[in-house]
Amino acid sequence: MTILTLETEHQVLKQNAVEPRLYREAMSRFAGAVHVVTTDGQAGRRGVTVIAACSVSDHPPTILVCLNREKAENDCFAGNGVFALNTLASDQQKIADAFSGLTGLSQDDRFALAEWETVSTGAPLLNGALASFDCHLVEAKDVATHRILIGKVTGLRIGDSLRPLIYHHRSYHIL
Questions:
Q1: Predicted confidence (pLDDT) per residue in 9-52, tens digit
Q2: CB 89 within 8 A of CB 159
Q3: Whole-prediction pTM value?
Q4: Staple partner for 139: which of 56, 115, 150, 166, CB 3.0–4.6 Å?
Q5: Which H or E run includes 6?
């Protein structure tokens, strides 16, 4: 265990004492579902593997997704005004790797690895996903290195109750 600063009998981090490397190490301890967020429209088609996504509200159904805004290619999500969040099953690790950029495949080659369909917004929904949420962008907010996309869910597809693909401590796991 890394102890950064001890004050009294509890671990307390002093303000501005958090180094990015240590922050990333601590965040690697978060376990999260693996998703591919997709978009399509006039600004282009794109898909990205993400862990940072969650429900905001069920009335109206709203979700948020965090994307690295330092990658100019991710601007198409806001440009299209639509996105889909596709939650991956345990047998979809190859898709997670491809859309994370690890394989070096082009966007067209990444999308060719699976079957996709559209529901209401035109954003690609992954066939075989545990769940897919089709969203209209309500708000995009830039915070530090990331852009938070908040989307109103206008359509969804619930897949089979399969085992989810989880990411924890820099590797995939099956729940």
A1: 455 555 667 898 888 888 788 889 999 999 999 999 999 999 99
A2: yes
A3: 0.88
A4: 150
A5: strand 6-7
